[in-house]
Design brief:
Strand content: under 5%
Radius of gyration: 21 Å
Structural class: mainly alpha
Distance between the termini: 51 Å
Shape: extended
Largest sheet: none
Number of strands: 0
Length: 147
């Protein structure tokens, strides 16, 4: 947890971020290794006004672990394997965070000049997917140096 957002530059000595770079544009923040107090304040404010936001955030971070499971694990009780039942198999069908290509696959029709709103609605209605954002692949064209 960072008290001052600008201190993110000191977390990774090999990373040469500009001190004036915004926190959300730095590598430690993008990788999830650094959280600023301002981000935590924002999450607290969101959950205060919308208690369902905490459930969504918990599901995205833990993959659907329940508070009861967290309590059991916190007390030191481990998980043991057992027989698979319909109920235990249904519990495994929970939300997951993933990255889906828009060049091929179920949402390819939105990959070229598609609108995010159309992608969002189609993914939610057709596949039960909640699109949080887009990751734009940076294509660096190869340059050939001829001597």
């Amino acid at each position: 947890e960072l008290v001052n957002d600008s201190n993110v530059q000191f977390l990774d000595q090999d990373d040469d971020d500009d001190p004036d770079t915004e926190l959300y544009l730095t590598q430690p923040f993008a990788c999830g290794t650094a959280f600023a107090v301002s981000v935590l304040d924002s999450l607290m404010s969101t959950t205060y006004f919308n208690q369902n936001a905490l459930t969504l955030i918990r599901s995205l971070i833990t993959g659907g672990a329940t508070p009861e499971l967290e309590l059991i694990l916190a007390e030191g009780a481990g998980l043991r394997g057992g027989y698979s039942t319909d109920e235990s198999l249904a519990n495994r069908d929970r939300c997951r965070v993933g990255q889906i290509s828009l060049y091929d696959g179920p949402l390819a029709q939105f990959g070229e000049a598609g609108k995010y709103g159309d992608l969002f609605v189609s993914a939610l209605k057709s596949y039960g997917m909640l699109c949080i954002g887009l990751y734009r692949y940076r294509y660096e064209q190869l340059t050939i140096h001829v001597l």
